[in-house]
């Protein structure tokens, strides 16, 4: 029967989607849960100094690449751009730690990135490369890394990121050239410019400007709402996802079925339209991509909604951006498509599949841009395709709150320099409006995941506190020559990563701060078992003969020594070890009466992990406490000072 | 006679140039000597924290605007782009200090930028606006401000700079629209894209890549050489210019005469060429701008060298970039033009006229790019016009060492996105090669002018020193409640801007550091004459009742109080004043044993002006010394430690 054939087709379509989705969710849930989602918030937190476990591990990289391929193939409303940024960061991390020891892929000459800053720089370049590859936008990649990803920025880093994306551009260009003859499917299409609009000459007048301001306002409101709803949905999803891998897979399957039903079912609502006489492209479309999908229509007719729904996301964007096709889509088709994409984009992000937000946001934005353009067709002379571009810009500005990078990425995507002032205007308006509601979507996810992100500015309430106020807990200090047992106990019972070293009489006349030792260096020293029977100071060179600089280099994530791995005899526990050689003798310090706001600025701008608080007056122990990232987090400060102005505190919590 | 008429024409041409040049030099030498040159190095130093006198004063602004107009009109080989950046910075400064009190142009609502950081941000935005206006490149403007001008960068600043340039773009666009009908001379021409190349389809192959690598190498060598020679010439010029205004004017006149002779004389060396049959433009050119200047040739012929020399700089660039005109210029014409522009660019920069380097550099680069393109015409399929663009990129990379911003500026100038990978490649090569010779041209000028610029990175030799090593001179500290006479004497005999305040017994039990007072705040307090007969501590609120926050706000450059303006009776000199209320009680401090490299990093990253050095051990005065910007300068450290490794020191000196 007639209906049965369509139903069988749906089963085949939905079934393949479901299998692909389940496979993506399975590898994600079982191998690397950290690979779910966009990855941009996590990379952003890493570059801020939060070493979250396994965010950049090789297993995450594997799942990110294949999960993303499976996820995109499954027809979800999600993008590959965010995952490509995360992939770039993972590859950079792998290179930076000299390959993976676990998988026996090591490379000695790659081991020169053994400190925090170099590794962060490398990962920033990885992010830039990811964006450059995803959008074929090398300059946009540099700007994305600068505006969204990186927390610290140096002139040298700008130049390195630029170098990276230049290489990406040349490689991409070569591959595209190689694939131009159609050897690699859709890859070679469009060249470096994915959605070419350059043929359109844009001249605009005052009514156009008004329309664009309206578009900016709509973008700001929809963007703010999107972020608000996404936050709520992610909180619900996190409850489901916490139940374990089967729940994650089930949720993914449900979303997959809904998506399949939308993309196969909704086009039936649209009526068939006769092909325009003057269509530039073939109508109806033959093959995979094109403006005029035939779907269920008779020959010579096309189904506008199917051109949007029953298509790859990239092709749907290309169709929305296409100019000279003002009457192609019915208003109702566009409206239904917008609502469906907006909702599907919201419910898809939190599932256990690598998923980017760029594509859903561009799709939804382009759709309402085209709606506005069609509605205002009588008063504005701009093409609906250009309105779609501006709509995409406004929604990107409203959700992600990036300005320069979105502007350049859109410029490089569409090659439409004439539109630049309008794109800038619409971005400014939508960002300003959305900023009055809530934070950008990535910042919001960082907060939701509880990552201790340090903002660039200090919160206002910090001005009323001093550094000494937030120092808590019993401070554990070591002597310059300390008993092994004490060190081992301290390392076992606490999770601290930094310990002040204080020389005490009889080594010095008065107690004196030597510096700071960090856990990983202590472990290396303990493993070397250079212990002494008596507490005497050794010469520093003696230690350096025994160890090389590489021994103290920062290990890859999760690969460092652990105190549980070391075992000591009772005799060894009674011996002494000299900490002078491994102590950082120039730790950054603040006086206890230093304003907390200024201490936070110091901590953030210099990218510290520990900040020592020293007493203001003499005749006291030479160290008051240690500040770490967690001591600057709003929740921690609120616990200590519940009396702080709650309104200030609320805004702080939002900003923390 | 025939020759006489040409000679009269030369006199008229050279004479007008000379009068305009003399006028430019006169206003520059007599009104604002600081307006000479590009202004970018000075703005860069200001944004680094060097408050050089009158760099951003209203008189400088005036001379910069009119001097630049006169200088460009005089036919010099110089650009208006650098001066426009400086102009933007001056206007921003004027707005930031709430107008000019000297010229009775004040505005109260503009007085909210009364601290260093806000004013610096505003001036950074001014720079961005200047570039955006000069090149009609809004995104390029933001990137220029980020890559070249600013020393500190925050996410909020990116967004503000973007806002500024968006406004510039919209205003420019409106003015161009208004001028399109030719009401404003050449202004409306070309729209937002000044040198449109978008019609050219660029496909390139491996031989093209080799040609481009060659171009990058040439650019690096020529760029390094240009910087080297410019440094030498500027040192010679500075001796001449130091002799006073008449010498400056004379030097300018000499350069003007040479320039006039070159642009009028050299075209005579070229033979006339017959107009091509298939020329897109009218040939020979009618009117002011065009590819085919008639000059002395008979009708139907044109003089290629005159099209380059006897033209505005902008038109010469447009002619060089023009595509489809491969055989337009003789090789010899291009070669002579290149040598002349290279040398004229070098001798023009140091004269007492506002002069930018972008235009000479783009001109020279485009010329040798076209030469290379013509020479390699047999093996490369790229148009010589595109080679000219790549040549300009390579020379910009070789002299200015900017990457991302040059790339985006060129993209926005030419609208040629397809060339982006090639432009990136050529920039990378030329910058890398030139960096092995010397520093970027702006950095070099900053060093030559002796401005204490703080580099983002600490020099290697600083690792061998500690903060206490470089503290010099007798330290002047004040008591919390200090005698007026002592303060006045200290302010009179020293030029210091910051003084530590130390509470001593009997006010406290032991000597204790209160904080830091700065000169301008002390002067405000002294002017208020809130003196006491006895040394007792007052309540802070008492001071705050008397003064408003505005009284302590940072004054405009050169407008603050001076100690010479204040007069005190003998009785007042014996009285006391309480400094607690105006002291900054949270100054940043380092321990004297802190590595100098880390102290420099702290100083630079936080944008400090004073850094207090505190003792490591108790039982000593609570303050060891104060570090300022000058204490980190290589020369100062070299004076203190002549024994430091001279090789290290040499590289330090280059980088300092």
Automatic annotation (TrEMBL), chains A, B:
Membrane topology: Multi-pass membrane protein
Family of the protein in this entry: Belongs to the chloride channel (TC 2.A.49) family.
UniProtKB keywords: CBS domain, Chloride, Chloride channel, Ion channel, Ion transport, Membrane, Repeat, Transmembrane, Transmembrane helix, Transport, Voltage-gated channel
Transmembrane segments: 7-32, 52-78, 122-146, 152-172, 184-204, 210-229, 249-270, 334-365
PROSITE patterns documented for this protein: CBS
Organism lineage: Eukaryota, Viridiplantae, Streptophyta, Embryophyta, Tracheophyta
The keyword Membrane belongs to this UniProt entry's keyword annotation: yes
Assigned GO CC terms: chloride channel complex; plant-type vacuole membrane
InterPro entries named among the record's database cross-references: CBS_dom, CBS_dom_sf, Cl-channel/antiporter, Cl-channel_core, Cl_channel_pln, ClC
Organism: Aegilops tauschii subsp. strangulata (Goatgrass)
Gene3D superfamilies: CBS-domain, Clc chloride channel
Compartments reported by the entry: Membrane
Residue ranges of domain CBS in the record: 583-643
SUPFAM superfamilies, per the entry: CBS-domain pair, Clc chloride channel
SMART domains with a match to the protein in the record: CBS
GO MF terms, alphabetically ordered: voltage-gated chloride channel activity
Official protein name in the record: Chloride channel protein
